[in-house]
Design goal:
By secondary structure, the chain is an alpha/beta fold. About 40% of the residues lie in helices and about 20% in strands. The strands form five sheets. An eight-stranded mixed sheet has the order 1-11-13-12-14-19-15-18, sandwiched between helices. It is globular, with a radius of gyration of 26 Å.
Length: about 650
């Protein structure tokens, strides 16, 4: 089914060439809607054209009057120079930051400033209590907390002129506190919905920040600031390359091109792997080693999330012809340096499909890299795993059921150098880039060629995987049966019914490849699940199933007003201060319960399900009980006019 095609693609792509592309892309300061991003996009477009593809540079408005579904665009930003000097205490005067040395020192979208100001030191700077009794007017705040929150409290509400950030986010277990004392953390302003005051920001290393904090205990700190930057109505770019097919159906592969210089693994690696995939497929087709595909294959290099929303909103009429996709994000890591594993992240279960299982099956071709000592069987020399949907990248836009393009993601996580100045090309592994480029090419081309034979095979593959999962889930329930928190018979039955429904939807989506009859698989697999449950149920505890807590909003039916995931930030920024405080507090509680909750909550809102039913779906998908939080989230979305409640 795969091996001949796999061999052709695997031996065509070059991980070494992809690593050189990473180094080229990493030269550009790729802030969304900026001259640096444009230059990177032009480079990618030129390379794709040189490889023989039909490549184009599409532009979209970068100004706050433009909307891409619920998302508001933002202005283009250009920074020419920026420096930060410590001037007092005079004995410790020095240059702290220079944009020419490291562009990441200047917080993106900072505005012009020239002058000196006193520095007021905060710990995190995220709570009102930290600001009591402090006069911040005309001063600069040094803090480690969320930069949007600190900006709101210090600049917007109290008149500070700018910020200095010295935080470093922890990425357990590979990046505990103080692992990177001399790296700079990537943080950014966005200004969506926020007019004046805005201000500027600098990011320092934790070691620099600690030195300033020690000095501040005995001295008044003053700094001299120079920022030469501007915001203006401009454009944001999307590179699109095409391998034409015989039909108007399409397979789509996406990698985001943005982030500050160097941002090698995030995401010059995804952009470079995608570029190498396009080159390899184009070369194989050009010399007749592969026939032109039946379906068109589209490749996109986008500003993350914003670009996907812009592209889809402009081409909404094409959505029914987008069969499936793949997202490449942070794929090139040297695992020994970065501490990462190559993950296949499935699409959300609200859009059940064949895509994640197919990619996983193809990934298995990578695994027998080395034979066992006895010469029988093989195993990989890299870490890999399959994980459920987590969101946070462009696949969360395409895989939204309101968009309807099932899109798994290839990603390496965790990453010791994620979102820091230490994410350099030296952290990239050419062999890993080659693996990913080959896997991407196999997935995209196989789907572009798939017909009736492939659809029948895929139905059997999904059936086999479903039956394995049923057995594994029931055995897990038996294993935990004597635990106080174990699932009872009725709860296991309900989860199994949920699993059967998702499987039947996934089988039905195979019909996008060919009009095959999947109903025999649907019926046989459902019967298999029932029979397995009946064999297992007598050994499960007899206890009541979970029921949604009694809340006032339990019967509400939310209806989404926009396609794609809701983008509430611009609307929140226009709320009054006390309401923004409530939103901040709610977000903190939501994140503690599960980062993925907001996305899944929206995905299950189909205009017919009640909040209680949505909460049950989220619980089945994740194991998280969050009914009250989900109800509160929908109240917020209704207040922000992103959903309607019936």
């Amino acid at each position: 089914m795969f091996h001949k095609l796999w061999s052709a693609i695997y031996h065509e792509v070059s991980g070494v060439a992809a690593a050189r592309s990473v180094a080229e892309i990493a030269r550009f300061h790729r802030i969304q809607a900026s001259p640096g991003f444009r230059r990177a996009a032009e480079w990618v477009c030129e390379e794709a054209s040189r490889a023989g593809l039909l490549a184009s540079l599409n532009t979209f408005p970068a100004d706050p009057t433009a909307r891409f579904w619920s998302a508001v665009s933002f202005q283009e930003w250009d920074a020419r120079a920026a420096t930060l000097h410590l001037t007092e205490p005079a004995a410790y005067a020095c240059k702290l930051a220079d944009f020419r040395d490291l562009p990441l020192h200047l917080v993106p979208r900072s505005l012009p400033f020239d002058g000196e100001a006193e520095v007021i030191v905060m710990e995190q700077g995220e709570e009102e209590a930290e600001y009591e009794g402090k006069d911040l007017a005309g001063k600069i705040v040094l803090a480690r907390g969320n930069i949007r929150r600190v900006h709101d409290l210090a600049v917007v509400r109290r008149g500070a002129v700018g910020l200095i950030y010295d935080g470093m986010a922890e990425q357990e277990p590979v990046r505990p506190a103080w692992t990177l004392p001399d790296a700079v953390q990537y943080v950014s302003f966005w200004w969506q919905g926020q007019e004046e005051p805005r201000g500027f920001g600098f990011a320092l290393t934790p070691r620099q920040g600690e030195k300033l904090r020690r000095l501040a205990r005995e001295h008044t700190l003053r700094v001299r600031v120079h920022v030469d930057a501007r915001l203006y109505d401009g454009t944001l770019e999307i590179v699109e390359a095409v391998i034409p097919g015989a039909t108007d159906e399409a397979i789509i592969v996406v990698a985001h091109l943005c982030h500050p210089q160097p941002s090698a693994n995030d995401n010059a690696s995804g952009a470079a792997a995608l570029l190498e995939t396009t080159r390899g497929l184009a070369a194989l087709i050009a010399r007749g080693a592969l026939p032109p595909p039946r379906r068109t294959i589209r490749f996109l290099w986008v500003p993350e999330i914003t670009g996907s929303l812009a592209w889809l909103a402009a081409r909404a009429e094409h959505l029914p012809r987008l069969v499936a996709g793949l997202n490449l994000d942070m794929v090139g890591q040297d695992q020994e340096q970065c501490g990462s594993s190559l993950l296949i992240e499935s699409p959300p279960e609200a859009l059940s499909s064949f895509a994640g299982a197919l990619l996983s099956r193809m990934r298995d071709l990578l695994l027998p890299e080395v034979k066992t000592f006895g010469g029988v069987g093989g195993y990989p020399l890299f870490r890999t795993a399959d994980v459920p949907f987590g969101g946070g990248s462009d696949h969360c836009v395409f895989s939204d059921p309101s968009v309807g393009v099932p899109m798994p993601m290839l990603i390496q996580w965790p990453d010791r150098y994620y979102h820091t100045s230490a994410d350099t090309p030296e952290r990239v592994d050419p062999k890993m880039l080659g693996r990913v480029a080959a896997l991407t090419g196999l997935y995209a081309y196989w789907l572009a060629q798939a017909g009736e034979r492939e659809a029948h095979w895929l139905a059997r593959e999904l059936s086999a995987r479903f039956r394995q999962r049923v057995i594994a889930d029931l055995q897990a329930a038996l294993t935990e049966a004597d635990e106080e928190t174990s699932l009872g018979q009725e709860e296991v039955r309900q989860r199994l019914e949920y699993r059967v429904a998702r499987h039947q939807e996934a089988l039905e989506r195979i019909r996008r490849l060919a009009p095959v009859d999947v109903s025999p698989h649907q019926a046989a697999d459902a019967d298999f699940a029932i029979q397995e449950y009946r064999r297992t149920a007598p050994d499960l505890p007899d206890r009541p199933a979970w029921t949604a807590p009694e809340i006032e909003e339990k019967g509400w039916v939310p209806r989404r007003r926009f396609q794609g995931p809701a983008q509430p930030e611009e609307r929140v920024a226009r709320l009054e201060a006390t309401t923004r405080d409530r939103w901040w507090e709610f977000q903190q509680r939501m994140r503690k319960s599960g980062y993925v909750l907001p996305a899944l909550t929206q995905y299950w809102a189909d205009g017919h399900r009640t909040i209680a039913e949505i909460a049950a779906m989220v619980r089945h998908e994740t194991g998280l009980e969050a009914t009250a939080l989900i109800a509160e989230y929908f109240r917020w979305l209704a207040e922000l006019e992103l959903v309607e409640i019936a």
